[in-house]
Structures are given as C-alpha cells and as structure tokens.
Amino acid sequence: AIKDYSRKSENNSFRIQAILPQRGNILSESGAIISRDAPIYRVYIIPEESDDVEGLVKTVENHLNLRKKTVDRIWRNIKKQKAFQPVLITENSSWDILAQLAAKNIPGIHISTGFSRVYEMGPAGAQVFGYVGAPKKSVPNAPFFTTGINGLEKRFNDDICGVMGQSVLITNAVGRITGEDKAQYVSPITGGNIKTTIRENVQKVLYDSLAMNRAGCGVVLNIENGAILAMASTPSFDPNNFKTDDGEEYIASLLEDVAKPFMNKTIEGLYPPGSTFKIIVALAALDSGAITSNE
To answer: pTM, whole model, 2 decimals?
Structure first.
C-alpha cells in the first residue's frame, strides 16, 4: 500500500515529453521525394501506470483487433523493458479507430501523433538511401526517437534529423494528464532536405535490370561531371516492411541471406580490376616516356 501511495504521489506532478521533429526529405535530382516523413498516430502503454497490465493489453488487443503475433511482441517488450518505459502497440491505426479508445481515458494507454519514415523507391537503392531505426543509446524522454542507420540517412543525419522540442505535461495522482505547462513548451524544428544527383527513372531501370539476377551491382555516371545518376545493389530489401507486424521475421530473413542484401556491393564489395586497370598502366607508360601516343 505504501508503494502504491508513493507511486501516485510521484505521478501527481510534471512529466517532460520530447516532441520529435519531422525529418527532412531525401530528394532526387529533379526534386522528387525519395524518402520522407509521414504523419501517424502512435498507440503505446506504460505498464507502471496500470494496476492491471494484463487487462490493459487485452483492452488494446480487442479494441484494435491486434494479431496474435503483435500481442506476443508486446508482451516480449513488457518483460524485457522497465515498467516506466513506453511499450509500442501500433503506428498503423486511423483516428476513427483510436477516437473511441482515447475517449475511455484509461490509465496506462497513450495516443500521440508522430512521424514514420516512408521510402518511396522501396528496394530500388535501399542500401544507398538508407533507413532509420532506434539509436544504440536511448534518448531521455524520447522513447520513439529514430536516427539514420545506414546510407544517406546516416551520412547526413545531422542535417536532416531536425531539433527536438518539448512539452511539460501536468498529471494527477493516478497518472492521468490534466493539463500542460505552456510556459515551458518548445517547438521542434524540422530537419533540412538533402538533394542528390539521382535520377529516379534511371535508378528504377538499373535496379529492375539487376533484380533479374541473384546478386549484382551497378553505377550510372554522368560522363561530363562524374555525378552519380543511379546506384543499386541486389538482392535488396524494402525498408517499408520493417515496421509491419512481420517486420522482425523479415529482417531475420535478410540477415540469414548469404547474398547479403544489406550490403551495398558498389562500395563495399572487393572485385578484381580486370581490363579497366589497363588504362592506368597505359597512362603510366605514356607519362614515363616508356611509350609514345603513336605506339
């Protein structure tokens, strides 16, 4: 009983909540969007705020018609995380479905807005453009923070990640949000866009050509200035699948693939130079005077 009163007393205060910014877009040469943030509704639970976690999970399971696979994932996270840490339920529900759940105002269930990354070209250059995911080290008050994991998303993360804002929420003795301290509100700053030299039509043609084979890679260059017009590696993957109910199995299958779909073979592979190296030898011979241009 003392523990219950202590917990309620601690919750009868303020809660700092980070406001995640919208990441900037990755653009093609023409300005078409390659990767972008899309607005979403996020449902999560905080086990510590409920006296009946099992009933809490059952409520969201029934209301959102969750698959058994999703429920199993929720319970795995509940068991491995600390009780005060948010556990994600879903990011794929519409407000029409969530409105009734929100109206119940059940302690422990939270609904918030946010962003989810969308990769417009899917597997066509996924290793090049990269994808986002959870950082190795968690960010305080921002449990759903994501960062660039590889590719351009990682290389230019500081430019496109934006700056977090914050809101200070007022809670009552049972943890319910009763208001907000607007004096301490800080607006997030949207990240900047990154424009590439990629031509989306050339990128798709290159990828489709390579995808007909088990493994391969290719680069298309502008011969006048060396700009990269397309770069692709196969087999590839679709990062849009990472956040689906089958995301964990999908990633596991990619990691087990001996053809290494996560590898950008155009820059990470090691290949014998072949006849292309003859150009260097010929230039060296001309430069040293060993041969003339007429020979």
So the answer is: 0.81
